[in-house]
Design goal:
By secondary structure, the chain is α+β, with helices and mostly antiparallel strands. The chain has an 8-stranded mixed β-sheet, with helices on both faces. Strands 4, 5, 6, 7 and 8 form a 5-stranded antiparallel β-sheet that branches. A 4-stranded antiparallel β-sheet has the order 9-10-11-12, with no helix packed on it. Helix 2 packs across helix 10. 48% of the residues are buried.
Length: 706
């Protein structure tokens, strides 16, 4: 395979590092308990580790330090940990590009040379111009934990709004840069979260919060998000509130402006799904925002305007999605015109560019892209190189060339240039990754869940793999929030596949792979379907002899961390290793921190008696049972995660260590200056190396390094 040597050896030979089957007895840090009992509709629920919710206390800091010492002490004894990290570093070290996007005569794109902590943003004149650095985030902090994102150019293409976040927090600042001089203006907008920058005239609309209480920036509940208008050159204190909902503190609000700056648009949501749309005619001074589509039992978004009408993607009365045209002056449903009706496949996204409409559909979690006229008349299907995932088509109205990316599990993200008129695609940039994709195969299978529902699953492994039940298997999934999990390349995954590991990823209910019907079948009181789907995936892999119970590891992050936490408490004997990352583990209190309230539309809320019953039934924290042997577990979280606050993982790990019985290690790894996902390349490689090493070590894998 052309792998580079990872260890300096006196003899150039294949080294097989056996795993010690008998793990040493673990001694965990003592965790104090408090007398805390909450009453939920007559049910008393103890919360003895409530004090760990205070992430700023000296006591919590001492607990974190003690836990990390035990965890890193254990990881440090894994014989191949450092060699595995070197292999991950080596395979990650290749140039990666984003698709270019045009701003006037210039093109912007991001590039990472390989191991840069953050990708550098470049700009060049024309596609053949010499690239120049526009912003290098790596120069902004010594540890590479400042992230930069381009939010969009002003209408005259002279200024660029830029988001700036630090240490992995969801909080960001908006800065403004002069495109010609590459200099930053004095404008600085703080306390921004989940916002865009919608330019209009000499300023932009953005979503912001009031300044949080000092010391609670990463934990306090975020309420009363508003739409502000910022005029370039003004201090933030002069920004004008243009839209707010004083009666509903727990709503997201976001703003947009059409390319011709005729319409301002506002989207309201009471959580992670369900929207309400408003519009305003910007050509009429003093006009107010008016209702376009009432919420919140559907998901809708304005794609563009076609003259005086608005093109909207919606799943209202169309679970798989459709496109409609609405006259905002006559917004009643009976006046809507269907541009593209609902299809058997899911409409995953829509965008305009070059006077055309591009629709992305999912067929069994694989992408299909179609080009239409703005009137909905078909033009062509865009031929993709294989089954996999693609996206990115869209642009300005005067574009003649667009760009899109394509990837699959063994197909590194490749950027294609697309001619709108002819439909011809050609490779624009293809990465050079240090592995041979011909050595691996991907298949999609369909298995039956507990209730008989057919669930698809991708399986990736080396060609010629013998199905004898001896292979380590890495099973991961998500299953929630209408998010579709599709084939995608990860260079870090190659390091597992090289070791003969089977990688499996099912498309559980709760996701968006089969539209809103599939989503609703795995949310609220039906969330148990998601766990049943995942358990059935594990049972299928064992029955088909891809793996065995003592070779099976499960992994998931965020809602996927909840998934891992739930199934390891329901079926602890089914898995050898569990890797819950930044998981939602306390289902009774998640809504009390930062933006956790926004997940109540997906999960429900313990403030409601009916919801409390199903939440308590599967909440990972509340279903750990004393005297139970749980899988070898490595919980991962980070100190700056202000989306799923680390208290979830802290309390879960403390309870797991208290109640677990048996030799399997149950540890927690707490990253510093990082957030909901690794904040930079260095931390991503280090965390992944530790997770993989823990998995391989505890599944008894024979790790081969040459």
């Amino acid at each position: 395979m052309g792998k580079k040597t990872l260890l300096v050896l006196a003899v150039l030979a294949l080294i097989v590092i056996p795993v010690c089957k008998k793990a040493p007895a673990m001694k965990y840090p003592a965790t104090a308990k408090v007398e805390q009992v909450d009453d939920y509709f007559g049910t008393a629920v103890a919360d003895p580790y409530r004090w760990l919710e205070d992430d700023k206390s000296a006591e919590t800091a001492a607990w974190v330090k003690a836990q990390n010492e035990v965890t890193f002490g254990y990881l440090g004894k894994i014989p191949f940990r450092e060699a595995l990290k070197k292999r991950l570093t080596n395979i990650f070290n290749y140039a990666r590009y984003s698709s270019p996007f045009r701003v006037g005569e210039r093109y912007f794109f991001a590039k990472n040379d390989g191991l840069q902590n953050q990708s550098v943003i470049y700009v060049q004149k024309g596609l053949d111009g010499a690239p120049e650095v526009f912003i290098d985030p790596n120069a902004l902090s010594p540890d590479g934990t400042i992230r930069i994102g381009l939010m969009g150019p002003s209408g005259d293409k002279k200024l660029m709004a830029v988001s700036r976040g630090e240490a992995g927090s969801d909080w960001s600042e908006i800065r403004v840069m002069d495109i010609e001089t590459k200099k930053e203006l004095a404008d600085q907008i703080k306390w921004v979260k989940f916002s865009g920058a919608a330019w209009w005239k000499n300023g932009f609309f953005y979503s912001g919060y009031d300044k949080p209480e000092a010391g609670k920036e990463l934990t306090a509940k975020n309420e009363f998000q508003k739409i502000f208008y910022h005029k370039i050159g003004d201090p933030q204190e002069k920004d004008i509130v243009v839209f707010e909902d004083k009666d509903h503190p727990l709503r997201y609000v976001s703003a947009g402006v059409t390319e011709d700056e005729k319409f301002a648009l506002v989207t309201l949501s009471e959580g992670t799904s369900g929207t309400e749309l408003y519009w305003r005619d910007l050509t009429k001074p003093g006009s107010a925002f008016a209702l376009l589509m009432k919420g919140f039992d559907h998901d809708s978004a304005v794609i563009d305007n076609v003259g005086s009408k608005l093109l909207v993607q919606t799943n209202l009365e169309a679970p798989n999605g459709k496109l409609i045209l609405i006259d905002p002056l006559k917004p009643a449903k009976e006046n809507w015109a269907v541009v593209i009706p609902e299809k058997p496949e899911v409409l995953n996204g829509a965008a305009t560019g070059g006077g055309q409409l591009f629709c992305t559909y999912l067929k069994d979690a694989n992408t299909k892209i179609f080009q239409y006229g703005l009137d909905g008349k078909p033009v062509r299907e865009i031929a993709l190189p294989a089954l996999g995932t693609s996206g990115g088509l869209g642009g300005w109205r005067d574009d003649t060339t667009l760009f899109y990316a394509f990837t699959s599990f063994t197909y590194p993200p490749t950027i294609f240039k697309y001619d709108i008129a002819t439909g011809v695609s050609e490779v624009f940039r293809k990465p050079e990754v240090k592995f041979d994709p011909q050595g691996y195969e991907t298949k999609q299978v369909f298995y039956a869940s507990k209730d008989g529902t057919k669930v698809p699953m991708f399986i990736v492994h080396k060609k010629g793999l013998v199905l004898d039940g001896t292979n380590p298997c890495f099973l991961t999934a998500y299953g929630g929030f209408n998010i579709s999990i599709q084939p995608g390349f990860s260079p870090l995954l190659i390091a597992l596949l090289e070791q003969g590991v089977v990688f499996a990823e099912p498309n559980l209910r709760g996701g968006g792979e089969y539209g809103e019907t599939w989503h609703k079948a795995g949310m609220l009181g039906k969330k148990q379907n998601v766990f049943d789907d995942f358990i059935a995936a594990a049972e299928y892999l064992i029955a088909e002899k891809y793996t065995a119970k003592d070779k099976l590891g499960i992994e998931g992050g965020s809602n996927g961390g909840l998934l891992v936490g739930a199934v390891m408490t329901q079926r602890p004997e089914l898995f050898r290793v569990a890797l819950p990352a930044v998981g939602v583990m306390d289902m009774l209190r998640f809504h009390k921190f930062t933006v956790g309230w926004g997940w109540a539309v997906e999960y429900g809320s313990s403030d409601n008696e009916a919801d409390f019953k199903w939440l308590q039934a599967y909440s990972p924290l509340h279903n750990l049972k004393a005297g139970t042997a749980y899988p070898a577990t490595l919980v991962t979280t980070a100190d700056h995660d202000d989306r799923v606050v680390p208290a979830h993982s802290f309390k879960f790990a403390a309870t797991l260590q208290e109640k677990h019985k048996g030799p399997n290690p149950v540890l927690i790894r707490i990253e510093t200056r990082s957030g909901h996902g690794s904040v930079n390349v260095t931390k991503a490689i280090e965390t992944t190396a530790d997770e993989y090493a823990f998995f391989l070590y505890n599944t008894g894998a024979k790790v081969r390094l040459d």
